[in-house]
From TrEMBL:
Residues 27-47 have a biased composition (Polar residues). This is EF-hand domain-containing protein. Keywords: Signal. InterPro entries: EF-hand-dom_pair, EF_Hand_1_Ca_BS, EF_hand_dom. Residues 27-51 are annotated as: Disordered.
Amino acid sequence: MIRTSTAAGLLALAAALPAFAQVTTSPLQQVDAQPELSSQSGRQTGVVTMDRDDGPQIIVRSYEPRSALGDQYRVDFAALDVDGDGYISRTEAKTHPALDAEFNAIDSNRDGRLSREELAGWLR
């Protein structure tokens, strides 16, 4: 059972919360022009506006991540699998800088080699 003073305090807190901020969301308008790009990310996907009674309006925008550009995340499995055993070993991965740097994260079963399935998860 909740004590009366605790319940009253919770009710007072709940009543005061709307006074701190009001949040509204709005869908992006569909336009034919290219969407605005941030210098740090891709196409804008959403926006939330928070109106505060005691301060300036806050606008939060979300952006679609840009895809990995260039050859950094392209892997030719057959070319890297020099010994033809169907796996890429740590030694074989050293010829590919991004793969070498992220080898431990990609090697999900911790067997010291990368399968095609493990690489497919990394490249998604």
